From TrEMBL:
Stretches with biased composition (Basic residues): 703-712
InterPro entries reported in the protein's UniProt record: P-loop_NTPase, RepB-like_DNA_primase_dom
Low complexity bias spans: 322-337
Pfam annotation, one family: AAA_25
Residues forming coiled coils: none
Protein name in the entry: DNA primase RepB-like protein
Top-level taxonomy: Bacteria, Pseudomonadati, Pseudomonadota, Alphaproteobacteria, Hyphomicrobiales
RepB-like DNA primase domain residues: 121-179
The species this protein was found in: Ancylobacter aquaticus
Region (Disordered): 321-344, 692-721
Amino acid sequence: MLTATQPDLPTSPVRTHVEMLHRLAQGVDGVLVVSVFNASLSHDKGIITHHRVGDVGGMVAAIEAHQGTVGANVYVGLQVMRSGLKRGLRGTEADIVAVLGLVADMDADTGKAAGPYPLPPNLVIETSPGNLQPMWTFDRPVAPAVAKAVARGLKTATGSDHGTADIAHVWRVPGTLNWPNATKLARGRSAEPAPVTVAEPWDGTLTDPAALAIAVGGHDTPGDAAPVTLDDLPEVDGIEVSPDAALLLAACDVGDRSAHAARVVEKLAFDGHPAEVAAALFLSASGDWLQRYASDVRARTDFARMWGRFGEPHAQAREAGEAMAANLKAKAANDNEPQSAEVSRKPPLFISSGDFVRGFRPPDYLLDGIMQSGFLYSLTGQTGAGKTAVALLLSACVAQGMPFAGRETKAGRVFYFAGENPDDVTMRWIGLCHALGLDADDLDVHFIRGVFDIDQFLDHIRAEADRLGGVGLIVVDTTAAYFLGTDENSNVEMGRYARLLRDLALLPPRPAVLAASHPVKNATADTLLPRGGGAFLNELDGNLTLAKRGDASSLHWLGKHRGPDFKPLLFDMKQVTAPGLVDSRGRDIPTVLASPVGEEEVAQRADAGNRDDDEILLAIRANGNRSLSDFAADLGWYSEDGKGDKQRAANATDRLKRQDLVQYAARVWKLTRKGVEVAGPIAERVHMRKSGERLAETVVSNRRGRAPRGKNRSGSSRSAA
């Protein structure tokens, strides 16, 4: 006999879920929609109710009214519909005014449950045994057009059902029952309803939609993408490319030249080059793979085709991340600082061309090509990436006017706000001064220990800057430590906080401000956006990033940077000791020093990394049922303790995962379809490389065993004939 008994839970999961939805939709003008369809009826138009944002009680009552109804399936979407939606209609994509999050429809009973998560979800709902719906709840409402692009990428990235890509889709509500319809009964489901439960509860955390867009951006690659139309191509002289892209452009004997050309296009797009710049670099490649084209015209035509398929999704993902960082924030900013009626009525001023250009002020770089004086930057990095170590090294270089990682700095005074773990900052400063041979008493760096209210003491800081003769760099370590608001996810509060930090850049004589920041929740090395939502990012002049890349950390940027692009700067995080850095028993206390890696060493490491990637990809193809330590040992990679170098293997597999060449599921490493395609050419390349190395070893060995010309093996000279 069928029953309609609800799950017996101590608190109402229905109310918890509804409260979450209304919190996400706060400030949006529209309605949330409850849809009820009865699985026991062959034709059911459903019962549809609309609830204005904030009407939590009414929405909960509308859902719980069906708890005793046999066959009643209740759904609510993660979208806000327009206020004028006709009564009784659920609404379509055209009626959506804002999207609050995305869901991956991963049903085990349809074979759609095995895909990986691009970012850890904020909560997971189990609609029936084994059928999961991970949800990514956004830290701000997102425009439908932007959300749709991310949803397509999410569907491909997770391998989930079609509902994932549909932003108008509706989802089951925790605390209700899942009644099977005729189709599910035909698949073997029990006629008894399954309780809809929360597998992983929501803890109040949110996902930055820009981070999710970047995480899934490379997956939104429709196979029938149209070729792009290219304008005039620029000269390649002076265009900087990443070390990895340079290696791909110059590669020879690559095996499958067509597959290699696609890799070149995708890498140039991933590095952020516009289509015309990427095409110019593509056509100027020095590697013999370009000889597959009979003419430049054919090469250009094929590039346009590949850019539409492989390159454009990366470009769109980058643009989507920047658009989402700026979208829907202007309203909050304007609400905080409304313009007066007098200003808004003032007519625009026309100026002549000559006056327009005479007002130009050239960039004044504190760190050449990267940081300008008077600008506000975040330095976003994962824990352990070395944000403090890099900020301290920059402080020392600016105070001395010394180059920083090979780039010139403008000498100036430094204010360093050590709010997060000032004792650790002290130890690192002692270690840095000793390692670089600097005397702390001679450095024009001024520290403030602990947290204080920047707004309250801004005049005091300005007075100190005046008294000392100005300041060139201010470091805030960290933004989280000096944020004295109540909610880091509040656009209003974080926008106000960012503008407060910008006030520091107005001190005499317009210093650069670097704010060390923690990333958004669940950020990876490729999605390092600062915590605080789009309102915070929108106020910055640049978001510098510090990402862990194997044993080193790479300084670059993501989301926003006013100025030209620059090559990533690589740093080793070295342990150092100093005579004055000891514990109470006189034992050395090791601390961390950021040590720049030169360009030649960067290129050598990139080549070594490529070799590691090739070897472990082929090892996975041979047998993926091995641990990382086993892979390392089988490849002859050993750490100092004599065991397989697990970290080296992890670094290689991480790089391969970022290129979508391998995946790890059910404790087994496997090649993706893309990995299978490139495995053959890689095997040929590895074989040729090892054959060349063996030949070189043989030649060297033979030369060492051969007597020099003009001498016998005893070393005496031969007599003349």
